[in-house]
Amino acid sequence: MRFCRFICWFGLVCLSLASLADERQTRAQDMLYQQVSLMALVNSESKFEQYRSLLSQHSLSPSELKPIEHEIAQFWLSRQIPIRNSSTNHLGDPFIRAMALEPELNGYLQIQNRIRHLHWLAQQGWWQPIIIDELIRPSKKHPSIPTIAKRLWLLGDAERSATTSTLLDEKLSSALKRFQRRHGLQPDAIIGPETMKWLNVQPIERARMLANNFVLKAEFMAQRGDQFLVINIPAFEMALFSKGRVELESRVIVGKPYRPTPLLSGAISNVVINPSWRVPKKILYNDLLPHVRKDGNYIAEGNFDVFDRSNNLVVRTAQQWSDLARGPFPYRFVQRPGYNNTLGRYKFYFPNDFSIFLHDTSNPKLFERSNRALSSGCIRVENVEGLANWMAANLVKDKQTWVDRHAERTRTQWFALNSTLNVHLVYWTAWIDEHNQAQFRNDIYQLQTLNTLEDRAGAQINDL
Q: Name one GO biological process term (predicted).
């Protein structure tokens, strides 16, 4: 009798252990499935899509899992992104091996959850193009409103899942504003071409944007030092990082699409108070001389000095300048420091081949625009005082002169730094923010593979 009981107990233990092993195998495959799902969105090679299919359909043997685990590890390591543990491939427990392969990245779980949700949405067949032929304003009716309301709910911006009302009411307007803010649009609750373009972006395209930009940002951050400045061009945002935390943030203005701000890295070596502005030749010919042709007083009113090729100051009457601007113009402009100087109060100089730097602006109202691709290439910083004060407190050598020079507005003063501050101009069009909200931005320079969202998303809207 005791022997029979022992056999029964032993059998139950074996079944329990087998069940536990199966559960760990299932969980391991699910974790690997989520990883290769992200990689299939980033990597155009078919192997990750094949792995995704295998992991979703079959319980794989250890020998079948090994090549998949190897490719996952190589994906992260080739991008210098650390994983939890790279020395567990000899262990027999597939769940421990799967956990060890996950990257050590903030926000990894959030991005995986969002991609999983977007994959699910893509399978439902709900994303037929919404077509409108007029602007839809708050408190107005339109037959597309119920479909738009459902789409906002599916994307997490609206609270209610369904409505038959064709009215753009207050609650739906609030949801639209949330959606517009998440896409870098003016939050006015007016449904127009830009809002419709983003509403029509297919879920799989959203997933691809998030995955690609997540890996781009992770690869970038994994190779950074303790202290650096980063400007995300499509987001029109700047962040100052120090010892792993954000010390300062600001909205910025970047180059127009036909005068793009280049992607580059450098090191700020000097800060200038009350800078003068040496007008680049392209800006002189394209922007300033047309004003001079209309009115030669533009030079005096803008506080410009004009120099010839021998660096001699040239003085002419307003009419003479207007006439000279109509032909060959062998002169250069330098705007004197002052309240109306284009560069404003501060310039942050870092050597580069494009004559790009960070600076203040004489027109701060431009920061209120949602699309801030407005400059000729340089970066204008809204919180320029905050950045200047941080530089003065942490990097400027001659702090007393810094204090003294702030009483003046017409005298230029260059300041050397104790150490340079690395600055990086990057290009990320999608990310998960600190509130676990998916953020998307227009590919303003058409640099990423999703450079024609309207076409790929099937967005259809008539000219309004």
A: regulation of cell shape
The answer to whether residue 142 is catalytic is: no
User: Once rounded to an integer, what is the mean pLDDT over residues 58-81?
Assistant: 90
Element (H, E) at 73: helix 62-77
Return the CATH class of domain 226-276+341-428: mainly beta
Q: Residue 453: its pLDDT value, please?
A: 38
Domain residue spans of the chain: 2-104, 122-205+433-457, 226-276+341-428, 278-335
pLDDT tens-place string over residues 274-299: 999 999 999 999 999 999 999 999 99
Give the DSSP H or E segment for 167: none
Could you give the CA distance from residue 461 to residue 464 in angstroms, rounded to a whole number? Answer: 8
**Two tokens at 274?**
């009350």
User: Among 359, 406, 424, 435, which one carries the catalytic annotation?
Assistant: 359
Please tell me the distance from the alpha carbon of residue 32 to that of residue 43, in angstroms, as a whole number. Answer: 16
* Residue of 70, 117, 378, 435 with catalytic role: 378
Residue 14 among the catalytic residues: no
Overall fold of domain 122-205+433-457:
Muramoyl-pentapeptide Carboxypeptidase; domain 1 (1.10.101)
Query: 322, 293 in Cβ contact below 8 A?
Result: yes
Mean pLDDT for 259-266 is 96
Token pair, residue 107, equals: 């926000």
- Residue pLDDT, tens place only, 344-369: 999 999 999 998 999 999 899 999 99
